[in-house]
């Protein structure tokens, strides 16, 4: 029996293709990129919840950058086995200014913990929170470093997914739109 690629291989391939698109955009435009994805533990990267979170994330990025001297020149949206992603090309701000805004978006919105908003500069340099002496993001379920919990698979995908649904349900029940 011939088997197709595993789910993990499809996700990894889609992530590689995203990095290739990002590198091409940087080469073509020479502008910083905001890469927006959804925190989606486990093998299933596309669902109604993820689509709703993604739409809300994109709306907030447009809102925050529409109110500043920076401009979104272009936004490329892709749906893949790695989940949806947006690549926003930003004109008029430094990498540090853009990162400060994306951190504010992640930290101030009720759904921000479910968003992964990266800032990418020349040479595919990702601007990190650590560069601003900011603590790493916390796990959805405990107070530990999210990256460490993820790498150690401390929590089940089911528990993480339930928490994501609870955060979104709370957001909707409070009438936040």
UniProtKB/TrEMBL annotation:
E.C. number(s) listed in UniProt: 2.7.7.61
Reaction catalysis annotation: apo-[citrate lyase ACP] + 2'-(5''-triphospho-alpha-D-ribosyl)-3'-dephospho-CoA = holo-[citrate lyase ACP] + diphosphate
Provenance organism: Acetobacter sacchari
InterPro entries the UniProt entry points to: CitX (IPR005551)
Keyword line: Lyase, Nucleotidyltransferase, Transferase
Classification via Pfam families: CitX
NCBIfam families found in the cross-reference section: citrate_citX
Top-level lineage group: Bacteria
Protein name: citrate lyase holo-[acyl-carrier protein] synthase
Name of the gene this protein is made from: citX
GO function terms (MF aspect): holo-citrate lyase synthase activity; lyase activity
């Amino acid at each position: 029996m011939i088997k197709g690629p595993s789910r993990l291989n499809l996700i990894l391939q889609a992530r590689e293709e995203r990095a290739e698109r990002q590198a091409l955009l940087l080469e073509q435009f020479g502008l910083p990129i905001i890469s927006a994805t959804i925190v989606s533990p486990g093998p299933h990267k596309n669902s109604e919840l993820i689509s709703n979170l993604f739409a809300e994330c994109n709306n907030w990025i447009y809102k925050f950058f529409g109110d500043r001297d920076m401009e979104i020149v272009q936004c490329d949206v892709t749906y893949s086995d790695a989940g949806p992603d947006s690549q926003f090309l930003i004109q008029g701000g430094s990498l540090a200014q853009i990162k400060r805004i994306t951190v504010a978006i992640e930290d101030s919105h009720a759904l921000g913990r479910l968003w992964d908003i990266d800032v990418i500069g020349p040479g595919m340099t990702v601007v990190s929170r650590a560069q601003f002496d900011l603590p790493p993001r916390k796990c959805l379920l405990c107070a530990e470093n999210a990256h460490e919990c993820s790498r150690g698979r401390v929590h089940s995908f089911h528990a993480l997914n339930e928490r994501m649904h609870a955060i979104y349900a709370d957001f909707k029940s409070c009438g936040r739109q």
